[in-house]
């Protein structure tokens, strides 16, 4: 539809779902990860469903109170298990980003979500494995898996423990991302914000990887790690694979999972006094140094011992 001025009257005829589709396209153009875009899509679709149940699914008339009602609904109604602070924070972030985008595009004059507060997320110390635990994990993979899957899964676990890659980064690895040239052995991963980083490979990872590659089927798929059908692995598949091995290895820790292996990599490096925390930040692909600091596992006794070790005057 075109007005007398010749301008397209887009916002007057578009539904909220139409705006969400454009918003998700914008995120894709800005190189947000598919996983992040999927989360935004899920959160915003639930928001629209709720507004439709109240007959208020009009982007022009959504109010702060409507958003507040939706958040109350998430906490109290229709959910067997209440949403955690982390989940609530993500859903609020999705809504705030969407309305901020609408305001910037002049679809809305005022942002109804601008004053919505994000719940404070309790900071948990990252869960990581001790040397005995990750040795037990590797032994479990060797014992439990069939010959081919043993080689693949040992390479996967070794990659997590030896490079600290994220789950999405590992399943996205392709053969072209592997550099096995002598003295330059490394992988190139695409992390958050579509940023690339190079991670060196140590002897243990190289050995596991080389052994797997010798037995890797010759298929069209260019992904490094293959499923039973010969295509790339899914994040869900690897997530459940690692959870199963951790359970079979009898590693019982709170929130232990794939991310614990990444934490183990970071913690092992930090325990090496010769490794600079800035280097670890780069290897992990952390945007903020504060995120890397969480792996220090400093307690009150460590702080007291550090202070007591200072020698300021000669005896």
**Shape from CA axes?**
globular
Succession of helices and strands = HHHHHHHEEEHHHHHH
Low-confidence stretches: 1-11
User: Can you give the mean pLDDT?
Assistant: 85
Q: How many independent structural domains? A: 2
CATH architecture of the largest domain: Orthogonal Bundle
**Helical residues, percent:** 40-55%
- The total of helices stands at 13
Structural class: mainly alpha
Explained architecture:
It comes from Candidatus Brennerbacteria bacterium RIFOXYD1_FULL_41_16. This is Tyrosine recombinase XerC. InterPro entries: CB (IPR044068), DNA_brk_join_enz (IPR011010), Integrase-like_cat_sf (IPR013762), Integrase_catalytic (IPR002104), Integrase_recombinase_N (IPR010998), Integrase_SAM-like_N (IPR004107), Tyrosine_recombinase_XerCD (IPR050090). GO terms for molecular function: DNA binding. Keywords: DNA integration, DNA recombination, DNA-binding. The structure is a single chain. This protein is mainly α and 315 residues long. It folds into 2 domains: 89 residues, DNA polymerase, domain 1; 167 residues, Orthogonal Bundle (hpI Integrase, Chain A). Helices cover 52% and strands 4% of the residues. The chain is built from 13 helices and 3 strands. A 3-stranded antiparallel beta sheet has the order 1-2-3, with no helix packed on it. A hairpin with a 5-residue loop joins β2 and β3. The longest helix has 20 residues. The termini are far apart. The N terminus is likely disordered.
